[in-house]
Amino acid sequence: MDAHVLVESHAGLGVLTLNRPDKINALTPSMVNTIGATLRAWRYDASISAVVLRGAGERGFCAGGDLAGFHEALERGEHEGFLDVLANEFELAGQISTYAKPIVAIMHGLTLGAGLGLAGAAQVRVVTPDARLGMPETRIGYVPDVGGSLLLGRAPGRVGEHLAATADTVGAGDAVENGLADFCMAQDGADDLLATLQDLARLGAGEVAVGLEVMHGVAPPPSTFTVTQSRAWIDHCYAPEELSDILAELGDSVWPAARGAAERIRGNSPLAVATAIEVVRAARDEDELRGSLEREHRAAAFLMSHPDLAEGIRARVIDKDGAPRWNPADPGEVDVEAIRAILEPEEDEDW
After folding, report:
1. Residue 32 neighbours by CB under 8 Å, 6+ apart
2. Percent of the chain with pLDDT over 90
3. Superfamily of 5-343 according to CATH
4. For 19-31, what is each residue's pLDDT tens digit?
5. DSSP secondary structure string for all residues of 323-344
6. Which parts of 169-301 are beta strand (E)?
7. Cα gap 147→51, rounded to integer Å
8. Is the pLDDT confidence value at 350 over 90?
9. Rounded to a whole number, what is the largest CA-CA distance in the chain?
10. Strand ranges of the sheet holding 60-62, from the earlier edge strand across to the other edge
């Protein structure tokens, strides 16, 4: 077991607490293995009726994967090791999504990348008023993964493309309105929610979700509906097929927020943004998580062999100079047809 995951059980509940608060509970391979092993044990434990997934500390539920470790692996050329780590995270997301007992994920503060992917796979997804959710991977030359492409693909309109391309985070209101969470609870409501869950634990996941929302749901702060209030220009500007055309629509928009989105996208890896848009759009047609995870794995294998990923982590996380040198730097030079071909499944694919 890993000290960075607290494993507790009481009154019919199994509670998993990510316990690396100094790193905003960023996931390590050991943490992923511990969560997976514990869920496998609890699946057949009659004393456990429901599971809670939460994070320690005030800063957030989970900031995503351990990017420093990923960068070291890429610099050493250990691409297969990098893919193995991702595959374990993907398998955990699949395990959570098909779990036989209700899993309730409580997302507070920063909930990013793999953290959002894992929480988003749970049957009941709760946010607090201070939550900031997002898939910021295009800032480092990567794409939403651990099921993030399916979460964004199922968001209404073109919100998924917008969040993937800009790497923006959203507040509690936008998270609920756009399907990233089921309801918002009070900032200090976790203990009360767990007490209610003890009474509901032997019900089905749907009944648990309804019961918890009725008992503990609160209205998200009005200031957290920014994306929801921007749907008109988002749906219009992200309708074109090609990234360069999307940027043109955003840049020419009468909406200042749209022009701001264009600037943020231009700061991200053009290759990653184009790939992210493709995986999100493809996920929109998926009925289950597995297909999206397989596509994300193909995207990861493609991008890890490209210099943008290591360069993005260097510039954003390691050196923190904020000046990544993307290749290509011009969105118009990205070969979208080649990306689409790479994302197509191969026969006997296994990850």
Report:
1. 85, 88, 89, 92
2. 87
3. 2-enoyl-CoA Hydratase; Chain A, domain 1 (3.90.226.10)
4. 999 999 999 999 9
5. ----SS-SGGG--HHHHHHHHS
6. 169-170, 183-185, 217-218
7. 20
8. no
9. 59
10. 60-62, 110-112, 132-134, 169-170
